[in-house]
Amino acid sequence: FVLSRGSRFTIVPLSLRVASSSCSLKPVMPQTDYLTYGFAAVVAFGGVLGFAKANSVPSLVMGLGSGAALAYGAHLASVDRRNFIIPFTVSVLLMGVMGAKFVRTGKFMPAGLVASMSLMQVARFSYRFFTE
């Protein structure tokens, strides 16, 4: 909430933006960041699948942790499109770790898939940073 000055001070939700010079207020509907929510689900599911197939506790912990961080970042980016630092940072880290694993092993699943999806997310958020 912020203070808005008219004939007196009133509290106005942040989701209201000034639409024109006549100071009429229009609600701005937040846009849900479905792509990041989907990426979070893929990463979390990959962690669970890695645990189920190879009994890998690090896969489970890192998959669920990264997925949760991405989901929280998707929520923040859905409320305010400029607030994408968390999913951007997690995507850069996943791109680095999983990209190195893909180069080392040569296996596309799961390292190459997660690295390429992370690269797409990094490109998407970089584009948003430079254009908005």
Could you please describe the fold and organization of this structure?
By secondary structure, the protein is mostly helical. Helix content is 67%, strand content 11%. The chain has helices at 34-54, 57-79, 85-105, 108-131; strands at residues 2-5, 9-12, 16-18, 25-27. The strands form two sheets. Strands 1-2 form a two-stranded antiparallel sheet. A two-stranded antiparallel ribbon has the order 3-4. The radius of gyration is 19 Å and the shape is globular. The relative contact order is 0.11.
- Beta-strand percentage range: 5-15%
Report the strand count.
4
Number of helices, where a helix is a run of at least 4 consecutive DSSP H or I residues: 4
Secondary-structure element order, N to C: EEEEHHHH
Q: Runs with pLDDT <50, length 5+?
A: none
Q: Determine Rg (CA atoms, Å).
A: 19 Å
Give the strand order of the largest sheet, numbering strands 1, 2, ... along the chain: 1-2
**Can you tell me the overall shape?**
globular
Query: What average pLDDT do the residues reach?
Result: 85
Cα(first) to Cα(last) distance is 23 Å
Secondary structure: helix percent:
55-70%
Structural class by secondary-structure content: mainly alpha
Oligomer: single chain
